[in-house]
Amino acid sequence: MRRALIGGSLIAGLGVAVTLIALLAGGSSAQSYIKSHYSRIGVGTYRSPYPPAVVARQIVKKKRPYDRAYDPSGIFLRYRSEIVGILPDGRGSRITVEDPDRGYRHYHSYVGGRWGGYHGHISTFRGGGPGSGK
Amino acid sequence: MKLFRSPGFWIVAVIAVIIGFSVLPGAFGGDDGLEPTAQVFQPADTTRLIGRLSAAQQAQGVCYGYVVDSDLHGSWGTGLTDPRGLSQEDMANQDVQYASGLGDRTDPRTVPEQCPRWVVIVAEYDYTSYDEEWTSVSVRAVDNIGLAQTLPNGVLADLGLTGKDLVAPDGIARLADVVTSAPLLTAQAGLAPAVPPASGTGGTPTGDHISDASDAGRYVPVVLGVILAVAGLTWIVVAAFRSRRNAT
């Protein structure tokens, strides 16, 4: 009985740990981090005294996005439950947090074709295409 | 034979089989890296990059370009970071792709009258024909405006990226990110004004919507974790049941 108690507890504990890590890791949400680390200046809008590349680095380090897109005009991070836009604002940055559909429409000029497209079909920066492979 | 009657044995055996099935495909040719392609950037990618670099050039008065050596045919570029621009040999190299805001196969370093100020992102992949994959990549910003001096740890580190990110399955998108972030880094360093938002922001064509953020890759470890947890608890319950039965 003792062996089963120890062995079973170890296996069950390992299972719970694997499940939690899988559920919480990678692209879940950055909203709570952004709320607690940047100044709120409007609904879903925040400000940082740091430039976009620095802010993106800070957020990505804490909350790894599902996907991202860097553009000359700003940086965009895609999480499962929101899209984060980081745009230059004076010497700092303006950060927006929107649900995926709204964020995709808002920033379509930057992320259209990368994160979606006609019927959700992604058309750029996927590799492959004619002559792919060796 | 007593061993086979132990529930612990069967639970451990089932777990070993499950883990084996989830690990073996990777061990036998499963490849989770970036698949090498004849051209790193496809024509649609190039068009998009040129458009964004051109917009940045107009806004900042700085020409932006990129040079990518895929190393697929083993003919290394010789002077990709030369401030005078690509040599004729490099331009003819089938592994070398280059473009700028001025157009495809235009190196801003070679047209000083049009581009007195320029920044070029140079990426050099290492390809191993044995594994048929890119194993590493080095990325440098070459410029004549002082940008590289403001990036002591390199352009990748400043963006929170590593060489590994560029050979991951979505590595081409990350390389594109490095190329298109050069104007952001230039503005951040105070070497040019920020690029204003793109015109047309907010418009989405009919039928164009965001792709699914697939959770498929996450379900495998979740299912595995749940099976482990249930198996562990089952072992304890079965052992407790047997223990009670033996006691009576």
Q: What is the beta-strand fraction of chain B?
A: 15-25%
Q: Helix-strand pattern of chain A, N to C?
A: HHEEHEEEEHHE
Tell me the span between the first and last alpha carbons of chain B.
Answer: 25 Å
Shape of chain B: elongated
Please write the CATH class name of the domain at 27-109 in chain A.
Answer: Alpha Beta
Class computed from helices, strands and strand pairing of chain B: alpha+beta
Strand tally of chain B, please? 6
Specify the helix fraction band of chain A. Answer: 25-40%
Contiguous uncertain segments of 5+ residues of chain A: 129-134
Proportion of β residues of chain A? Answer: 25-35%
What's the helix count of chain B?
A: 8
Rg over C-alpha atoms of chain A, rounded to the nearest angstrom? 20 Å
**CATH-scheme architecture of the domain at 27-109 in chain A:** 2-Layer Sandwich
Give the CA-CA distance, first to last residue of chain A: 58 Å
Using DSSP, what is the number of strands of chain A? 7
Mean of residue pLDDT values of chain A: 87
Secondary structure tally, helices of chain A: 5
Q: Uncertain regions of chain B: pLDDT < 50 for 5+ in a row?
A: 26-30
Order of SSEs of chain B: HHHEHEEEEHHHEH
Protein name (chain A): DUF4247 domain-containing protein
InterPro entries (chain A): DUF4247
Organism (chain A): Actinomadura rayongensis
Pfam family, one (chain A): DUF4247
How is this structure best described in words?
The complex is a heterodimer of chains A (134) and B (248). Chain A contains five helices and seven strands, in the order ααββαββββααβ. Chain A has 134 residues and is an alpha+beta fold. Chain A has a domain at 27-109: TATA-Binding Protein. In chain A, a hairpin with a 2-residue loop joins strand 1 and strand 2. In chain B, helix 2 packs antiparallel against helix 8 and helix 3 runs parallel beside helix 7. Chain B is built from eight helices and six strands, in the order αααβαββββαααβα. In chain B, 43% of the residues lie in helices and 16% in strands. Chain B has two domains: 2-25 and 216-247; 43-188, no CATH class. The radius of gyration of chain B is 27 Å and the shape is elongated. The chains are: A alpha+beta (134), B alpha+beta (248). At the A-B interface, helix 1, helix 3, strand 3, strand 4 and helix 4 of A face helix 2, helix 3, helix 7, strand 6 and helix 8 of B. Strand 7 (116-118) of chain A pairs antiparallel with strand 6 (208-210) of chain B, so a sheet runs across the interface.
